[in-house]
Amino acid sequence: MLDHLSEWPYAGKPYWVLTSRELPKPEGEGVDVRIVSGEVPDLVDEMLDSAGDHDLWIVGGGNVASQFADHGLIDTVEATVVPVVLGEGKPLFDRRLPGAPMQLRSVTTHSSGMVGLTYEVKRPADRESARD
Question: Residue 32, CB half-sphere, CA atoms under 13 Å: how many?
Fold first, then answer.
């Protein structure tokens, strides 16, 4: 899976992999990969502690993103639209987000033709983030 990388792109940053499978850990200087299984509420405090004053960047399929959203742990969604016609696509989340609809905050165009969209997620009042 990682054989094509000559250098780890996230050196010096903790990188969490949520999975139910056993996966090999990449090795190298500055590589901090933590392969874990478990429920998001059980993992989020340790993840936030490892990020320090920085944001968590959640990358994964709709199920992973939805687990964080279900617990009010997403405040921003950044999506990149790649201009490729696939005929069909995959949803960003695998279920409806709790709370109000996302609000578009910015659009960034790239010379490659890709477009970056940044949305704010309005969390339900009773599901504030673990760090708010």
Answer: 10
CA–CA gap between residue 70 and residue 76 (Å, rounded): 14
Q: What is the Cα–Cα distance from 79 to 92, expressed in whole angstroms? A: 9
Note the pLDDT of residue 10.
Answer: 84
Name the nearest CA neighbour of 91 among 129, 118, 64: 64
φ/ψ of residue 51, rounded to 5: -80, -20
pLDDT under 70: residue ranges of the chain: 1-5, 84-89, 124-132
* Residue 91, SS3 per DSSP: coil
Q: Are 45 and 64 in contact (CB under 8 A)?
A: no
| Cα-based torsion angle of the residue sequence 94, 99, 103, 105 in order, rounded to the nearest 10 degrees | -90
**Structure tokens, 94:** 């695998």
Query: pLDDT tens digits for 87-112?
Result: 666 777 778 877 778 899 999 999 98
CB 15 within 8 A of CB 34: yes
